[in-house]
Amino acid sequence: MNLTEEPEIVNWPETHYVFIEKIGPFMNTAPQAWGEVHRNVPAIAEKNQITKYFSLYKMGPDTYRAGVSIAEPPVELPEGLQYEKFPGGKYSRFVLTGPFSDLPQASGRAWQLAEEKKIPLRDDFAIEYYVTDPRVTPEPELITEILIATE
Q1: pLDDT digits (tens, 9 = 90+) for 48-87
Q2: What is the DSSP string of 53-101?
Q3: Which end of the chain has the smaller Cβ count within 10 Å, N or C?
């Protein structure tokens, strides 16, 4: 697994976020949520400019949001999708290079590193930002940022 061990402090901007939310174990809810989002991407993109793909997640209870950011507040979203203006904020960023199948292990390691380095965390959603497009990027070259909310 190719994960940076030294986090970089970054600021995630306020973002218009369209998503599907699922509650329960991430191994079950994440694929379900992404399946629904991907089925709706053509309809979202019809009237809205998609700028990023990312997920938000929180533990206790396990809450997973799969979604896209859009350039402006949404116009005519498909039924079942939710929207919020995500406030963003300060995050500790770890970068994974490699397949999405490494994400569970990489995310666990990022949280472990945050604890080991005594990074002051805030109670907010963590982010998985999919920097590269898996439709055109070879699996070993995929880049995913794991961002943990930091005080």
Answers
A1: 999 999 999 998 899 999 999 999 999 999 999 999 999 9
A2: EEEEEETTTTEEEEEEEESSS-SSPPTT-EEEEE--EEEEEEEEES-GG
A3: C
